[in-house]
Amino acid sequence: MRVKAAYQKKRTDGEFLIVMSPGLHIHFLNESAAFLLDLCDGRSLGTDEILERFAQRYREVAEETLKEDIRQTVQEFLQAGILVTEDVDGGGDDRDRGQ
Fold first, then answer.
1. What's the pTM value of the predicted model, to 2 decimals?
2. What is the pLDDT of residues 36-65, one digit of tens each?
3. Cβ partners under 8 Å of residue 29, min gap 6
4. Yes or no: domain 2-82 corresponds to CATH 1.10.10
5. Is the N or the C terminus of the chain less surrounded, counting Cβ atoms within 10 Å?
6. CB 1 within 8 A of CB 85
7. Domain coordinates of the chain in residue numbers?
8. Which residues pair with 3 in a beta bridge?
């Protein structure tokens, strides 16, 4: 998974934003959602590796809670069109796919 090409990640004054132009769609993210989005950079990290990185960063949170929060946030990012899954052939530009 990776961030859709039309979106840009911004960090200003301690706030995490995802901005899409044209149309200027802005999504405000909390710190953990921004961290998850940073991990979804197209390197194909597996669920276990993402969970491990979250567990290292958020040691006070139970693993099952982290797992469910990650699953739910990824689903929300996919539904909002912020994240896209890679093509089978890995090519092409996702901007005109309506995702």
1. 0.72
2. 988 887 776 788 899 999 999 999 999 999
3. 16, 17, 18, 37
4. yes
5. C
6. yes
7. 2-82
8. 83
